[in-house]
Specification:
- The chain is of the alpha+beta class.
- The chain folds into 2 domains: 115 residues, Beta Barrel (Elongation Factor Tu (Ef-tu), domain 3); 254 residues, paralog of FGE (formylglycine-generating enzyme).
- The protein is 16% helix and 21% strand.
- The longest helix has 12 residues.
Length: 403
Amino acid sequence: MTRFAFCQPGFRPGILLCIAIAALGQAQARERPGKFVPRAQVQSIQKEKHRLCAEPGRIPGMNAAPGTDAWSDFFLEKEADMIVMSGTQTELGRIHLDRAEGTLVCGEYSLDEGDVQIGDWIGVQVIRNPPRTSVSSGPRPITPPSRLRSEVDGKMMVLVDWDFVVFGQGEDPSADNYNPHFFERAPELTPRIESFYMDQYEVTNREYFAFCRGTGRTLPDAWRADGKPADALQDHPFVMASYSDAAAYAAWAGKRLPSELEWEMAARGGLKKLRNGSGANGIRRRPCDFPMGEWQEGVCNTRERWSGAPKTLPVQALKDTSPYGVVGLCGSAPEWTASWYHPYPGQPSFPMHLAGQQFRVIRGGGFFLPRDSARADARDYGGMESPGQERRAGIRLVRSLRP
């Protein structure tokens, strides 16, 4: 097996190139002229091969932009020799580019398991081979903005960048959110979630009323006497949505309800957010329990916040912020997702009479619920079609980065 070592941050490409040339010999260097591609990230680790991905223009501490010679050399080669450098060590091997999605190109490498950790970055010296057909055609996409405003309902949306999601919890097998593989990091057990935008704040009473007025949808019972929500509650989250209400609002707004795993990754972060150089494979053993990290009194709007009757708060008054800048995921209003209520793969104990396509997953804490419901991994369910019994919750929508 060819062995590669990862590239420590802080080494300049020129220094690394000199080291590589010295290690491989002057003659070999002359035979293999090339350009240095600064870094690609380790995205998965398997027993015999690892997966690395490079994204031009999104490399910390580097000024090179997409389209520069170094990146062109990397992207124009379907296969290329490479030198992976770490300090004074160099290894010569071969890269195979097996995926091209706009500016994202990934390759698989034969590596010893102890050499790299998920989230590490390597340096690659791309060797010029005879020109081959480019793996991508046309102009490269512009790096997506971190925020955008929805055209229909005017809500600000924040980017949740693609990542691998660690979901559920691995300590209580009797709970409905038990994931038997919670502490494992194998790619087949850690789903990849593609980039998407998520509403920064929950849909408010004001916004849901605009939807009803624009579409003729029946007002909630609590609003019918006045024909509108109370003035003092206009900017509070709308908490009276059935699943069909939430789906209808999403269709009107040109967005969609998040999947359960999209919601959880937005609340606690994926593997890239867990990178800290410790624990299994160089990441924290477990993601945070709450969107803002550790539990903090008075931050989430849950029942514990109130000595009297609990109530909602204006969405912009909430202080719990997820790793991506999404606000209000741990309290105020539980939120509908598009996912059916199913057990996680391998879960030994689950109320199977509730499984199937009858209930949707609800995520997030509520102003009337205890703090355990505000955990980023907590699950609830609803969706009975009976108008008098159907669960009510709030709405927060997403939009895929790519159609």
